[in-house]
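An instance as discussed:

___
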Amino acid sequence: MTPARLLIIAGLGALATACSTTREGAPVSGASSGSPQPVAGLDWFYHPDAGEAKLLYGVETSDDLRLGLACQKGAGRLEITANAPHGTREIHLESGGETERFRAEGEASELTDGDFLTAEAATSAPVFQRFRRVGWLAQWQGSRRETYVPHPSSAPDIERFFAFCG
């Protein structure tokens, strides 16, 4: 055997040994479902009112709104609202692998250091149909991704909202 082959075999053996050892008492991590988890203090809140409804993600009864969806009954259209850094003119959403960017109007926010954005979309857009199925939505701002996951008690409100909107 050549010295180069011996060196490769010895290296592979050392690598295999290193990969197969664990520290005594080291915790073993379980497999993740890959689905994001709810965040304490944040949730989706459904507000139907006569001919319109809102589905808002944030802190209940506060100005801390992360994302808002609103519609007229049966219209099949949504108004999307979000806060974003100054100069941002799109709302970039993701749900279960579907992503879409919605061109938005913006104005200086009275509540944050950024802009308040408003966009329109069809309820039939793939990202919203996936949101209905998987139960979570994420918003991208640059390279930062925030997931908006309902707590078990509010999860049915997502389907109620979309059923109302049409």
